[in-house]
Design goal:
Bound molecules: flavin-adenine dinucleotide
Number of domains: 2
Order of helices and strands: EHEEHEEHEEEEEHEHEEEHHEEEHHHEE
Number of helices: 10
Structural class: alpha/beta
CATH architecture of the largest domain: 3-Layer(bba) Sandwich
Radius of gyration: 21 Å
Largest sheet: 8 strands, mixed
CATH topology of the largest domain: FAD/NAD(P)-binding domain
Strand order of the largest sheet: 3-5-4-12-13-14-11-15
Distance between the termini: 34 Å
Strand content: 25-35%
């Protein structure tokens, strides 16, 4: 059975790796083709937090790899005011901060451990071809090549082309929250942060800075802001640096340190958008996973983790499936199992966003704590 996976990001590569582990030899020789629009070697992304549910999925997808060793374990969330005063600290179930590129390389290595998996890079999927019964039979690429397959997966991110072909009226929300995501080369700060995720809040609400050590020398950090109140007008390096300096003037010493050690030419302005829960995650022999299925707001830290859990479940349900018709039933089970989680992530993301936009309230002992921005 040939699987065509549109999108070679976290969801697509995790799915290829999971299929190669779970598909039963009895279902015939497998071929998995990942189609990735970005060119070979295109850089991309800073990092994310692998939460317990993502780590658990990875342990099933590739049990022989030490996934936690790819990054730094995070055990504490420390929520602070902009001047650095601690508002509250929580122990976390261990999570791992990883660089996106290192993590993707590891997922690809797992996917390509099976020689029947291949990737076409630098070419995007433009259309899905269906037969008279609506069963997908092939995809068309932007160079007009046609690739036939038995099952098709849309792992093509928040702006998914595959999703648009299944659910043309499903729309992403407006980007109410923008993030500038950066990496600072700051060994002293990385050491000081250790296993702690620090997040600093403007008491007026709508502005925060988060930071985590991703290695012994690199700190992944982000400015999260209400786009209605704080607008970035230009994304070249000097404009981003000037914007960050002006916004964070007078904030705590850790923030002065990341500002001084960041190369803003590598920073990324991320306009975060979410997707209202879909009525289904599949249609016939086509299934959606990751952001294509459930783009969520970054407050939940569930983008990559949700994609990993989707990939594992899909591969488990397809274990003994050998044809397009069999995949349909497996995909309906997948859809029924994952939709409640997606709905919860959507609601949690919205709840955390509402709390983020509000000023921190005053209480007898000072400022009240902001909401912990992680969901498992
Ligand atoms: C370049 C990049 C950098 C990112 N950096 C971060 C980060 O630093 N921190 C963070 O928390 N999240 C980041 N994200 C988002 C994060 O990876 C996802 O939210 C999450 O991992 C879910 O993964 P996904 O596979 O569903 O989507 P994605 O990781 O977005 O992967 C989707 C893939 O599909 C490809 N694609 C899109 N359309 C087509 C098409 N028509 N044909 C073929 N391929 C297509 C895209 O190029 C992309 O590689 C980044 C995403 C990208 C694409």
């Amino acid at each position: 059975m040939r699987s065509i996976i549109v999108g070679g990001g976290v969801g697509g590569c995790a799915l290829a790796a999971a299929l190669s582990r779970f598909q039963s030899p009895a279902t015939g020789p497998h071929a998995r083709v990942i189609l990735e629009r970005r060119a070979t070697g295109a850089s991309g992304g800073m990092g994310f937090i692998l939460m317990p549910n993502g780590l658990e999925a990875l342990a099933s997808i590739a049990p022989d790899r030490d996934w936690a060793a790819l990054g730094r374990t995070i055990r504490v969330a420390s929520l602070r005011s902009s001047d650095g005063d601690i508002l509250t600290e929580h122990n976390l179930e261990p999570a791992v901060c990883v660089a996106r590129e290192r993590f993707l390389k590891a997922l690809r290595d797992e996917a390509f451990a099976d020689a029947t998996t291949c990737m076409l890079e630098g070419r995007g999927c433009t259309a899905i071809e269906r037969d008279a019964h609506g069963v997908a039979r092939a995809v068309t690429l932007d160079d007009e090549q046609r690739i036939a397959g038995d099952v098709i997966f849309g792992a093509d991110g928040a702006n998914s082309q595959v999703r648009r072909s299944l659910f043309p009226t499903a729309e992403l929300s407006d980007a109410a929250i923008h993030e500038i995501v950066s990496v600072a080369d700051a060994p002293d700060l990385a050491r000081e942060l250790g296993a702690t995720f620090r997040k600093f809040h403007d008491p007026r609400g709508g502005l925060a800075v988060g930071m985590l050590a991703e290695s012994a020398s690199r700190v992944v950090w982000f400015i999260q802001m209400d786009a209605a109140r704080h607008r970035v007008t230009s994304t070249d390096a000097s404009s981003l640096a000037a914007f960050a300096d002006a916004m964070l003037d007078g904030w705590s010493s850790e923030i002065m340190e990341v500002l001084a050690t960041t190369d803003f030419s590598k920073s990324h302005l991320w306009k975060t958008r979410d997707l209202a829960p879909l009525a289904a995650l599949s249609d016939q022999n086509i299934a959606l996973l990751g952001d294509a299925a459930h783009a969520c707001l970054p407050f939940t830290s569930q983008g990559a983790n949700g994609a990993l859990v989707d990939a594992l479940l899909l591969a488990q349900l397809l274990k003994d499936v050998s044809c397009a018709e069999g995949a349909r039933e497996a995909f309906e089970m997948y859809s029924a199992a994952r939709r409640p989680h997606h709905r919860r992530m959507f609601m949690e993301g919205r709840r955390l966003r509402a709390s983020f936009l509000e000023p921190l309230e005053r209480c007898a002992s000072g400022l009240a704590s902001p909401v912990l921005p992680l969901v498992a």
